[in-house]
Known about the structure:
Blueprint: H1 5-16, E1 25-28, H2 35-46, E2 49-54, H3 61-68, E3 81-86, H4 89-93, H5 97-109, E4 114-118, H6 126-130, E5 133-136, H7 142-155, H8 162-172, H9 176-186, H10 199-208, H11 212-220, H12 226-238, H13 245-265, H14 271-282, H15 296-302, H16 306-319, H17 323-339, H18 348-352
Parallel strand pairs: 1-4, 1-5, 2-3, 3-4
Helix pairs in contact: 1-2, 3-5, 7-8, 8-9, 10-11, 11-14, 12-13, 12-14, 13-14, 16-17
Amino acid sequence: MIGNEYARRQIVFWLKDWKKGKKPLLIIGPPGTGKTTLVRAMSNDFGYYVFELNASDLRTREKLESMLSNISSINLYGQPVLVFLDEIDGIFSRGDQGGMDYMGKYIENSAVPVVMAANNRKDSMKEIFKKSIVIEFKRIPNREMELMLNHIAGQEHIHLTYDKIQTIVRESNGDMRYAINQMQVVTSEPIFKDRKLPSEEAVKGAIYSATYAESVGFISRWDADPELKIMITAATLFNSGAEDMAERAKWLSDADILMNRIRRLQEWRMLRYLNYMIAYVLNGLPGGYNEYLIPFTVINQRWKRPIYESITEKMEHELHVGRAEAVSIMVPMYEFLIRKGIIVNDDFKKAMA
Length: 353
């Protein structure tokens, strides 16, 4: 990191000497000056697990309490936990008194170190200021930003002219993150190893990989939500006719259980284990890619009737789901509920709820 050396030193000593009852930390500074990066790097150096939340998305007391009330001081790996609330000024921008009151009480009584970050000072945050150790970050000076960009260029074997670097520095106005992003834009070398893969390419790659390790690589680059990964993996598996279906299905079941725990405990770094499980299910699987949990032959028979197509289109629009999910899950469930007489209207949102 570069810039704000004295402020960074104060923050490091705060965590090094932290004990229960110590005031929380509030870092205030413009975007791109290193607030979040410092918290992550410092926590890594001291062996803390960072429980990170964007406070601007959790403005009400109910949301804050649901996320923060059950945090334990040690995570599943035996690491001490640090709570990091980014964009804390978002809670105070709408003046939600319940959210503000809860935050004030939480930081006073927390059993874990709490770091908050905000872009701006707000008059409505006076109570938080009183209860916190406030550290201010300034914009990165041009000379220091130039040094960092030259350092990155050397590490990445990138050649940029002096004029280009000066232009980036000038336009970034002390925002290091913006400067690095601009630097990446103006370089022409694509980085293929980090290219994200669409569902079909990722699944086929995992299936036909010569080794399990290669399969993991394809699943790690799969650009899809974890739940969608599980659903498509299930569809591919159940339509494959594999002789070892039971063993692979057990791994898929465990992956589904793991995903539930990840969401409940907010242990997002455990997602890599989800990728390992999915790769095990798919590697060497006979057959090919499939998005539909219901065999396509059955779907095809249904779709000879125009009403199924219109229902699918409406569900995609009303429920904001992809076609694969609508066809495989939503439409069959809707039909089942209608046949059982459980629903008698066409309100998809109400019916699916």
